[in-house]
Amino acid sequence: MSEVARPTLSDALTERMLELIREGGHRPGDRLPSTRELSQRFAVTTPTLREALRRLEATGAIELRHGSGIYVGAAIERLVLPNPNMRAMHAPKLLDLLGARIVIEPPLAAMAAGHGTEAELTALKRVLADAEAHLRGQDAELHDANMTFHRATARMAGNTVLHEVVDSLLTVHAAEQQAILQIFDDRRRDYEEHLAILQAIEARDAAAAEERMRAHLVDVKTVIEQRLHHPPE
């Protein structure tokens, strides 16, 4: 029977840093004490402290700004975190990723139709206008706009945890999402499907928003599956 692993000094430091942030009432963007001050406070060497800081930075709990200092990260309050160590996905996993999105995102689109504010709708329209402006070969910008559209739609649903799930999937698998854009290879059609989703959300038609999001993702998954199994000659 293997021995239960004992917490390391870095583990303890990581937890003490989180306690410092929580008990101090710090919010994302707040500046924390310097490395020197933290080393003295916790009675550890600077290299040991830096190891703990790097671990916290990897999860987004803190942000290390060169020449500026240590700040509370935007992800400090997240419940769902992307895995920074995730490797590239192969074809079966790529289809699983799309399958997961088909389960999660359509109900969120329906919820967005009921919860979205006018300000959020205006922002979503701007995102699609940006996507439309990059349909002719500017794939990096188009990809960013497309992912922003899906993130923003999930955020409009009003469920923080589910929004974080979608955001994590899209963040960790950004390269795969770009590959999907290349394989799908119908940028105008992709844009028009996004536009149809937006129109349903704007009309407060939850059923149509859900169905259009599902149809869009199923359409993408079907094309990807066909082209992975039967690549064009």
UniProtKB/TrEMBL annotation:
Keywords: DNA-binding, Transcription, Transcription regulation
PROSITE patterns listed in its UniProt record: HTH_GNTR (PS50949)
Domain of life per record: Bacteria
Keyword Metal-binding found: no
Keyword Transcription attributed: yes
HTH gntR-type domain ranges (all copies): 7-75
Protein name per its UniProtKB record: FCD domain-containing protein
Organism: Nonomuraea ferruginea
